[in-house]
Specification:
This protein is α/β, with parallel strands linked by helices. The chain has 3 domains: 2-49 and 458-506, no CATH class; 59-115 and 152-277 and 377-432, Alkaline Phosphatase, subunit A; 283-365, Gyrase A, domain 2 (2-Layer Sandwich), CATH 3.30.1360. Helices cover 32% and strands 16% of the residues. An 8-stranded mixed sheet has the order 6-5-7-1-8-17-2-18, sandwiched between helices. A hairpin with a 4-residue loop joins strand 3 (126-129) and strand 4. Helix 1 (2-9) runs antiparallel to helix 3. It is globular. The structure holds 2-acetamido-2-deoxy-beta-D-glucopyranose (4 copies) and zinc ion. One 2-acetamido-2-deoxy-beta-D-glucopyranose (NAG) is lined by residues 115-116, 119, 340, 421-423, 446. The chain crosses the membrane at residues 461-484. InterPro entries: Alkaline_phosphatase_core_sf, Phosphodiest/P_Trfase. Keywords: Membrane, Signal, Transmembrane, Transmembrane helix.
Length: 508
């Protein structure tokens, strides 16, 4: 079909030069046909879905970066030229609904598993597992116990099981043995290692010789979370912190360019959560309502897991349920459905949730912060930034909203990995991609992936049919237009508009 078009047009044109030959310049209508048919031709290419056994050079590469606590709107506060350049060259999603609770460990694990916290098992930064009789705390080596992580399989493990390689620079959980594996390349967590040193490692891993280079890497940086907690997000001092993150991003872009990776590596820059401004006037003191000997305090404010002592559940719950208008108390089984935060024994029998800006303490003598996160994930201030660029992504495309669990199936698609059962859906965010997935990879949510299905082969047939119908329609329109001498109607936009329309039709 492609050859026929070129032949009839009488000369070989590339898609780029072709734009100059649209009707308003007096070109042949056949070139317009070609424009319309091009998306179909590309859809029919059987090589679009790559398999893990193909040549190393052709393999798609992906780097996932998290700047901890980078709230979605920070980029609008100060000039952030490096975030802007990714937005212009790629995609941006304005509102990202992350996973409840909006804390660091649960959300970083959701990003690489596509699971809500109740399903991946890292339900908080501080946890107690009654079956294991073990406690988990970010501040201890307990995080290195695989049993906490083995309820899910992070993307790096799946890639390695499929014969690929991965790299990890301090992403939460990435230096823990999970399902018997560490990332192919990784750094042991050490907060003193600079961002620049982490970037150099990641670039080195991507640049390694054929057969050793990583396909996927994750990169984590502690800021602007730390400053957000200390200063509060409303502090003018945060402006400088945010500008500093943009400079760090600029460093990363530059290192990728220097290594010749910039056009090859798909880059996603996001975060785990946002940050809310707190106030010392907004403190809820639990000691006013319930004897602290009746329960164990498990996770920290503003969403606190309460483990009542044996036989004390109803007493503790009764004391807390209507205790303070700025705090909700839920029994685990009554936690609102949309949080997807019930079905795990690591979620404590009582959950306290403060309203935005409020802090829950036992009394006022504890450590107080000016900024915090953890609140309801539908609160905008809890939501992270999201930008991405690279060969897999569209250019200069703004999307209004997504859920962070949808990122996992998207990353699996880019890397040609079959996703494990997850809570995301590629369908919701496939418009971020430069070429939309074939039906076999656009799997509906909550469904186990079967090996490639034959439905894929219908696409060319349906595509050709729609193509022919559209071409005929176009010819009629063209002839009418020429007849009434209104030639300059279609201009360049006919090219840009025809593509998404055709592709959408194909996926009905
Ligand atoms: C749980 O572990 C602690 C030690 O960390 C021990 O004192 C306690 O008896 C254990 N509880 C049960 C129910 O095994
Ligand atoms: C952590 O990194 C710093 C800076 O690179 C280094 O000086 C220190 O020895 C590292 N600590 C550990 C435990 O490796
Ligand atoms: C507040 O709690 C701490 C322990 O967390 C305790 O040492 C202190 O006495 C308490 N203060 C008051 C006023 O109850
Ligand atoms: C999330 O996905 C897991 C794995 O497929 C599934 O067990 C769980 O029920 C899902 N959760 C929701 C809320 O659909
Ligand atoms: Zn965080």
């Amino acid at each position: 079909m492609l050859g026929l078009c070129l032949c009839l047009a009488g000369r070989v044109v590339t898609p780029h030069t072709m734009l100059g030959y649209l009707p308003h310049r007096g070109g042949s209508p056949l070139l317009c046909l070609w424009v319309l048919l091009l998306p179909l031709v590309s859809l029919q290419s059987p090589n679009r879905h790559r398999s893990p056994d193909q040549g190393v050079e052709d393999r798609p590469k992906l780097l996932l970066v998290s700047f901890d606590g980078f709230r979605w709107d920070y980029i609008y506060r100060v000039p952030t030229p490096n975030f802007r350049s990714i937005m212009e060259e790629g995609v941006k999603v304005e509102y990202v609904e992350n996973a409840y609770i909006t804390k660091t460990f649960p959300n970083h694990y959701s990003l690489v598993t596509g699971l809500f916290a109740e399903s991946h098992g890292i339900v908080a930064n501080e946890m107690y597992d009654p079956a294991l009789n073990l406690s988990f705390s970010m501040e201890t080596d307990s995080i290195y116990d695989s049993r906490w992580w083995d309820e899910a399989v992070p993307l790096w493990v799946s890639i390695q099981k499929a014969g690929g390689r991965s790299g990890a620079a301090m992403w939460p959980g990435s230096d823990v043995e999970i399902h018997g594996m560490f990332p192919t390349q990784y750094l042991q967590y050490n907060a003193s290692v600079s961002f620049e040193a982490r970037v150099r490692k990641v670039v080195e891993w991507f640049s390694a010789p054929e057969g050793e280079a990583v396909d996927f890497a994750v990169l984590y940086w502690e800021e602007p979370d730390e400053s957000g907690h200390r200063l509060g997000p409303q502090s003018p001092l945060m402006d400088e912190v945010i500008a500093g993150i943009d400079e760090k991003l600029g460093f990363l872009l530059n290192e990728l360019k220097k290594a010749g990776l910039y056009e090859k590596v798909n880059l996603i820059v996001t975060s785990d959560h946002g940050m809310a401004q707190l106030s010392p006037e907004k403190i809820i003191e639990l000691d006013e309502y319930v004897d602290r000997d009746l329960y164990t305090w498990v996770d920290k404010s503003p969403v606190v897991g309460i483990l009542p002592k044996e036989g004390k559940l109803d007493e503790v719950y009764g004391s807390l349920v209507d205790a303070n208008p700025n705090m909700a108390a839920y029994k685990r089984e009554n936690i609102p459905e949309h949080f997807h935060y019930r079905h795990n024994i690591r979620i404590m029998p009582i959950l306290l949730e403060a309203k935005e800006g409020w802090t829950i303490m036992q009394n006022r003598t504890g450590h107080f912060m000016l900024g915090n996160h953890g609140y309801d994930n539908t609160i905008r201030n809890m939501q992270p930034v999201f930008v991405a660029r690279g060969p897999a992504f569209r250019q200069n495309y703004l999307k209004t909203s997504m859920r962070s669990v949808d990122l996992y199936p998207l990353m699996c698609h880019i890397l040609s990995i079959h996703p494990l059962p997850n809570n995301g859906s590629l369908q919701f965010i496939q418009d971020l991609l430069s070429s939309e997935p074939t039906p076999s990879t656009a799997t509906p949510p909550h469904q186990t992936i079967a090996p490639k299905v034959s439905g894929y082969s219908y696409a060319p047939v349906i595509g050709s049919f729609i193509g022919v119908v559209m071409v005929l329609g176009f010819l009629v329109v063209y002839i009418v237009l020429v007849t009434v001498k209104q030639r300059p109607v279609l201009k360049h936009r006919s090219w840009e508009m025809s593509q998404p329309l055709l592709q959408e039709d194909l996926h009905l």
